[in-house]
User: Fold this.
Amino acid sequence: MLKHVHTSSSSVRSNCSTPVHTPHHHHGTIRSLSLSREDTLSINSTMSFGSLSPDNTLSSRSSSYTSLNDSSLSMPSPVVKVPVKIYARCLRADIEYKTLPACNSTTTRQLITQLLSKFKMKHRDPNLFYLTMEVYVRRPGCTPVRSQLVLDDDACPAELQSCHPRGESRFFLQMRKGGLLKVYDSCLHTGSQYKSLLISSRTTTDELVQLLLTCSNVCNEPVTRFSIYEVNDRLGTERKLHPDDYPLMVTSHWDNDQQGHMRLVMHRNPDPVPMVRRKLPWAPKPRPSRKLPPTPDSPSRPPSVIHLLPKPPSDIASSFRSEMDTAMSTYDNYFYI
Assistant:
């Protein structure tokens, strides 16, 4: 017959190394079983995990995730620059290529300006140059096809280069057709008479002024301080070019007879005159306010109180009305023809 023995769980948790007597019906004896260390560790780990509430665990995880997001937003993303190889044999015969660092937001115009400054060609007009991209298109079982693309001034070569495998795209510096332009710039230096520059037909007046300032090493003067004038020496007239005009297109409209007495002159703009407010002669002059001395009977009044004039006496008012009536009766006696 089996005997039921009740063992509390507190005794198991308090001392797991002590033998625990479990009932077993074998010749009326009770065998003792001892728990191993592995069982002790498993019980302890289960009890320790059960002591944590799921709400605390989720809140700690969410707070750590939020802190990671905040730290990622506060850290600025680094600007990665990649090398861009530009073949620039059109600048000089001894120049094969030049490698420039550029990021994905660097435009074609910025690369051309940086390339001219590297070779110390500040007298060259950046509008004379443009970039082309040579791309090889590979097809299975066919010879690679080469295509050439003309890039705009606001295109990003580094971003275009990342869209193609390495070695399958190249950039070439090309040159547009331009014209020789003579500009008299004695306003910059007294010893200088004129400068002859090779510019593009797309170059505006402001860009021409900036190019002249760069050639003369004038860096502290803004472009708005100077203007280009079209001067006619025969007639003694001059016309100021608009900042968005194209000076090379202006000179191309000159006739053969006008070539001898027409020229472009650079002038410094006069300093703006400060505006002075003009006084109107008919403006009434403000009359000084009289301040009456306070009487001992009445307290002193503030200066903002308006004093009313006393009423005229009755005899003066009656005489004024009689004069007005006489004048009106005389006016009615006139006859108009």
Q: What stands out?
A: The helical segments are 9-14, 37-50, 54-74, 108-118, 157-161, 205-215, 247-252, 314-332. The radius of gyration is 49 Å.
